[in-house]
Amino acid sequence: MRATIEDFKTGWFGIGLGIKKSELDLLIQRLETLKNNPDLHFHLGSTYSGSGGVGDIEVYVEPEGSEDNLTMTGFPISPDPK
After folding, report:
1. What pTM did the predictor assign?
2. How far is the C-alpha of 45 from the C-alpha of 64, rounded, in Å?
3. Which of 25, 49, 71, 82 shows the greatest Cβ crowding within 10 Å of its Cβ?
């Protein structure tokens, strides 16, 4: 996995999360576990190599009705392979 930070120079930042195909099944498994056990959580933790970056991402179930500050968008449309 690889996490990146993009500074939009507006006070807002983008976080990119690159996941290898070989890691997808484990992530799906962890998300399914959260779906069935909403009191649990898991972390995506850094190797802390390099000069800085994303140190930790905690993944947990947010209570229904709580105020959101993110939305989930769709996949981008791929270019037509003509």
Report:
1. 0.82
2. 26
3. 25
* Cα angle: 23, vertex 27, 31; to 5 degrees: 170
Q: How far apart are CA 1 and CA 15, in angstroms?
A: 13
What digits encode the pLDDT tens for the residues 3-55?
Answer: 999 999 999 999 999 999 999 999 999 999 999 999 999 999 999 998 999 99
Work out whether the CA dihedral 64, 1, 37, 75 comes out positive or negative: positive
Task: Report the 3 state secondary structure along the chain.
Answer: CEEEEEECCCCCEEEEEECCHHHHHHHHHHHHHHHHCCCCEEEEECCCCCCCCCCEEEEECCCCCCCCCCCCCCCCCCCCCC
Q: Which two tokens stand for residue 15?
A: 């976080």
Q: What is the rounded CA–CA span in Å between residue 23 and residue 27?
A: 6
